[in-house]
Design goal:
Helices cover 53% and strands 2% of the residues. It contains eleven helices and two strands; from the N terminus they run αααααααααααββ. Strands 1-2 form a two-stranded antiparallel sheet. Helix 2 packs antiparallel against helix 8, helix 5 crosses helix 6 and helix 9 packs across helix 11. The protein is elongated and about 55 Å long.
């Protein structure tokens, strides 16, 4: 296995530096032109690929321009209009509820606080963090998606399993100015190299400091299971 650095702070700093060099243009891959579109896209992206979400929202955003548009549509119509994303029926309900709450309580605008965002249907801390960061330029934490969960455990930055607990560990390790970039770097690396089932350790810029490297290690620290 690789040889991680002496402290988790040093390990995090080295990982971030290398990933910045490897992915210099790393950023959010969802397509949107305003805060409402961002909020909708992030809600739809739960357990769904950004690529599929972008395909669906291309038409969706032409037909739904305001919070009132979502509030006035039926859940069935919304579910049909987002067909192709995972759990489209549930998410159709979320979108209607979001539209109604934004229209009734926020003058149709997307709020800029964690508490107000997480009060919206279908919006958890991860979604709220993305909206705050990319819609309001407010960075309150680190977005922990499935890639960040997997890679931070593999790389020895945390042993936690729940996203909230992982975020707590990361915010103590990662400099605040890197909180936003951190997620996108890990997503890019998780998609390109450090995939869930068959990571390409031989072509990984982090292999020499990764305690999960399957080139000479036995265990995937992300799952706790042996490499097969």
């Amino acid at each position: 296995m690789g040889d991680p650095l002496d402290s988790r702070e040093a390990q995090a700093a080295e990982i971030i530096d290398r990933l910045h060099e490897e992915y210099p243009d790393s950023t959010i891959s969802l397509q949107f032109s305003n805060r409402l579109e961002l909020l909708v896209a992030v809600v739809l992206s739960a357990q769904c690929t950004d690529e599929r979400v972008n395909e669906v929202t291309e038409d969706l955003f032409e037909n739904y321009e305001t919070a009132e548009d979502y509030a006035e549509a039926s859940e069935e119509q919304l579910a049909e209009d987002i067909y192709g994303v995972t759990f489209h029926n549930n998410k159709g309900g979320y979108l209607k509820g979001i539209g109604r709450k934004l229209a009734d309580e926020h003058d149709g605008e997307v709020p800029d606080t964690m508490s107000e965002l997480t009060d919206l249907p279908g919006v958890g801390r991860k979604t709220a963090n993305v909206v705050l960061q990319h819609g309001h330029d407010v960075v309150e934490g680190i977005v922990v998606d499935t890639h960040v969960q997997r890679l931070t455990r593999r790389l020895g930055l945390t042993e936690r399993e729940r996203p909230e607990a992982i975020e707590d560990d990361l915010t103590s390790l990662v400099p605040r100015e890197e909180w936003q970039a951190f997620t996108h770097l890990f997503i890019d690396h998780g998609r390109a190299v450090c995939t869930a089932r068959n990571p390409d350790c031989a072509d990984c810029v982090l292999e020499d400091i990764c305690p999960s490297s399957k080139l000479d290690g036995e265990t995937d620290l992300a799952s706790g299971e042996s490499w097969t």
